[in-house]
Amino acid sequence: MASIGADDIRNYYVGTKFQFTYYFRSRRFIGLLIFSILITILILFLDLHYDYSALKAENSAAFLYNYLSNGIIAYFAILAAFFGGDMISMDLGTSTAFYTLVQPIKRSVLYLGRYTAAFLSTLAFVSIIYIGAIAGSLYLYRTVSALILPSFGFALLYMLALISFATLFSAIFKTPSIGLVVSILFLILVYPAIQGIISALAGINPWMFVTYAGEMIYLVFSKNYVVYSVTHTQFAYLYTFNPTGDEAILIMIGYIIVFSLVSMIVFTKKEIKG
Amino acid sequence: MNMASIELINVSKEFGKFRALDNVSFKYEGNGAIGYLGPNGAGKTTTLKILTNLLRPTSGKATINGINVNRNPVEAFKRMGSVIESPSPFPYFTVEDSLMFVAELRRMDREDARDRIEYYAKALALPDLNKRIGDLSKGQRQRVVIASALLPDPEVLLLDEPTSGLDPFEMKIIRDMIIKMKKDKLILMSSHLLSEVAEVCDEVIFINHGKILARDNVANISREFRAKAVIVEFLDPVDEKLISAIKSMGLDIEKNNGNSVIIRYDGSNDQRAEILKKLINVGNVIRYDSVGSELEEAYISILKNGSQ
After folding, report:
1. Domain span at residue B257?
2. Stretch B51-78: mean pLDDT, rounded?
3. Which terminus of chain A is more exposed, N or C, with fewer CB under 10 A?
4. pLDDT for A1
5. C-alpha to C-alpha distance for B140 and B170, rounded to whole angstroms
6. CB distance A272–B49 less than 8 Å?
7. Is residue B59 domain-shared with residue B81, that is, in the same domain?
């Protein structure tokens, strides 16, 4: 294993800075920024008009549970795909490789710099969503549940795991847009669908799905949620699985390590043939 | 400081069953420009990609200043600049960002980097430094990339068809820069343009089907492969009478068109002088010139022999 030197730390900083600049100026960043702000404002607007708020609940924690469980988790997946889905193919699939990969920086360090830049970019959008949640809670209840902090922590860990997962597709597919689209499809359609089938019908704990661990972002607001239950219906047994905090952390860290390592190895070893 | 060097030791590269490079070896040290010549698919870009670790050799070793590029690319890259194929910095970067990215990775002092960027902005006629890469023409982008390769003042430069896709004005800028740079750098440059190689390079390597066919300095090649045809232009149109007169002197007319004829000969200066002496007796010669360059003759001859 190659050692990490002062050069690598400095290059990591340079790589992160320039990649973040790249993301910051890209159309996708500006587009998603406008979209995030509009969505947040729309939700806040509905909250201001009490009767229209579908999120209104008995207290701040219950409101935040509703706010973060209504599609916002899926939006996190889109964010991760947009910033991780072409992280590697942006070099390997374009002539950018002839510019970046001939500079005196280890590819693994370049990967880590990009990964950090992708995370910082998504952090901006996640923060906007949480600012909206705090503002809504303050307006409706004059207080914000302290559980928003662990929820935010889970959200950040979830983003790291999702970006790691998306980078795998950017390593597999040469065309940047394909990696991006496949990441979104997996995280929004394929994963939730398979997770639903194997957990609800087959009764298997879906610990292998990062989307399952991501549920902890809103479950944290519920003090007594059921971790496992079986319901006997007329036709079949229906199983319910919810992650515990520890379980969610383990799954997310597992995703970060496994998928980042695989992506990094592919990026380091890949030859530029085209 | 070590002397600049580029060395390939028995390098082979296979893509499945296709052997792109076959036991290629060469070594150059010091300064100067080496032209790397061969037709499309000969193995030129594969060689340069191995020297920049974009590809790894199936066997053999590639070194820059004695450093194995494929084992220690970062150390090798610190000593070299390269323009392989048509690189493109990130489209949302400005010209200045693209150059500063390189400067920061190369540990250049910020002020020094800015001075050098300004120098190359003038020398290579770069577009406005605040313009985005995505808004540049191919030629402008290529000049930015060449500037990024030169910016850290590397000891070794690898250039893969550096003037490809450029207009004549841009080509001249790049050629002049290479001529200037070769005084204290070692430059390996692939090109399709034989006149360009003849103008800027001191040495040439001929490659085809992944094998080195010949290599020598340009002066030796010129001596060995003199042009073997002259074009003669007469004041009046070339008619049957004139053609008969030329043929009767034992000269070999390759073709004639309008006022001119092309005559083949053995390439020696004696026969060239003799032909001129004879021609001025049969017509009013207003132009007498070689057809093709020595390098072109060498290129055609070496490649033809190599494929037999």
Report:
1. 228-291
2. 97
3. N
4. 47
5. 9
6. yes
7. yes
B214's CB contacts (< 8 A; 6+ apart) are: B205, B206, B298, B302
Predicted TM-score of the model (pTM): 0.87
Provide the number of structural domains found in chain B. 2
Tell me the chain A residues in contact with residue B55 when contact means C-beta distances shorter than 8 Å. 271-273
Alpha-carbon dihedral angle through residues A5, A8, A13, A14, given to the nearest 10 degrees:
140
Distance from CA of B104 to the nearest CA of A (A): 7
For chain B, helix, strand, coil in percent to 5 are: 40, 30, 35
What element of type H or E holds A211?
helix A210-214
Pairwise CB contact (< 8 Å): B90 & A104: no
User: Does B87 share its domain with B171?
Assistant: yes
Residue B298 lies inside a defined structural domain of this protein? no
Q: Are residues B191 and B252 in the same domain?
A: no
pLDDT over 80 (residue B225): no
The total number of residues shown for chain A amounts to: 274
CATH code, B260: 3.30.70.3400
Contact B75 A101 (CB under 8 A): no
- CB-CB under 8 Å, B78 with A104: yes
* Chain centroid offset of residue A167 CA: 12
Nearest residue of chain A to residue B147 (CA atoms): A99
Tokens of A127: 């923060």
Per CB-CB distance under 8 Å, the chain A contacts of B148 are 99
What is the rounded CA–CA span in Å between residue B143 and residue B150?
10
H helical segments located in chain B: 44-51, 73-77, 95-105, 110-123, 138-150, 168-181, 194-200, 218-224, 240-248, 269-279, 294-307
Chain A nearest C-alpha distance from B65 (Å): 15
Token duo for residue A89: 């193919």
Residue type, A189: L
Q: Which of A45-49, A180-184, B257-261, B291-295 has the lowest mean pLDDT?
A: B291-295
d(CA B135, CA B155): 31
Residue that terminates a domain, selected from B202, B222, B242:
B222
Structure confidence by residue, pLDDT tens digits, B231-280: 899 999 998 888 888 888 888 887 778 899 999 888 788 888 999 998 99
